[in-house]
Amino acid sequence: MTKKTYAALLRGINVSGHRKVPMAELRPLLEGLGHTNVRTYLQSGNAVFTTDSGAGEDELRTALEDAIEERFGFRVDCLVRDGEYLTAVAEACPFPAAELQGKELHAIYYSGPADPERFASIDREAYRPEDFALGDRVLYLYVPEGLGKSRLADVVSRPSVVKGLVATARNWNTVVKLIEMTRED
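and the corresponding structure tokens:
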């Protein structure tokens, strides 16, 4: 089997002291699943690992979610994406990422297609200069004042919009760092 490097994106952990998954414990958990060259980034649920299992993203995600639930006693939604996908997302970004600060641009990764119909009712003009664009299982979110002050971020994250999808956001600095980490093997 050929080795492949993936990033695991955990959703909603280590926020305000809730749903704690220490990265120092996540690394051996991933190694226990048979993965190698495991590294983590920040405390917000980013891990990179290599595997030669031949498993696809969904199998790897399910195994990780099950292992986290067994180890920590609660289920955490995860997305697993290979390095090629992460690179393709960055290359397809319609916003001038190199000219922006990391806090101004985010990638919201989805578990499935980001169907334009989900977002059709959003009056984008009402939120300018904020904006968004859709890509392959991703929404690019431009928020010049940052995510914390964004009104558009709340709208694109409404349960009625993302119903049935797991969604997890990363600022552009993290997007770039995860790409770098998946290329280190």
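(Above: one complete record from the training split.) The helical segments are 23-32, 57-72, 83-91, 116-119, 152-156, 159-162, 172-182.
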